[in-house]
TrEMBL record:
Protein name, entry field: Uncharacterized protein
Keywords noted in UniProt: Membrane, Transmembrane, Transmembrane helix
Domain of life: Eukaryota
Record region (Disordered): 1-31
Keyword Transferase (UniProt): no
Species annotation: Ficus carica
Length: 98
């Protein structure tokens, strides 16, 4: 796929001023004039990031659903000493990671 003017994904400004095709105007219309990477590589990276974020969100929903709908899990954290220690360890570990 080649670069075409008016294509934001390829790094060109959509609203360019004139239709003059000289080299100076071409550099001015680019959104990232110093970008030497292939735009397809950049979009592949963005897709991977969105996939990772989506997977993390799905895992979070699955864990939350298990805790909410499977009664022995919240009962473990509320009614046992080991559950209280595990709960405190989970809370503290989230602060230590940052």
């Amino acid at each position: 796929m080649g670069r075409s003017k008016g294509d934001v994904e390829s790094g060109y400004n959509v609203s360019h001023g004139s239709n003059n095709n000289n080299n100076n105007n071409n550099n001015r219309d680019q959104l990232y004039p110093t970008m030497i990477e292939n735009p397809q590589l950049r979009w592949a990276f963005i897709r991977k990031v969105y996939i990772l974020i989506s997977m993390q969100l799905l895992l979070t929903v699955a864990v939350a659903a298990a805790v909410v709908f499977y009664r022995p899990i919240p009962n473990f954290f509320v009614r046992t000493t080991a559950g209280l220690i595990a709960y405190i360890a989970i809370i503290i570990s989230t602060f230590l990671r940052t």
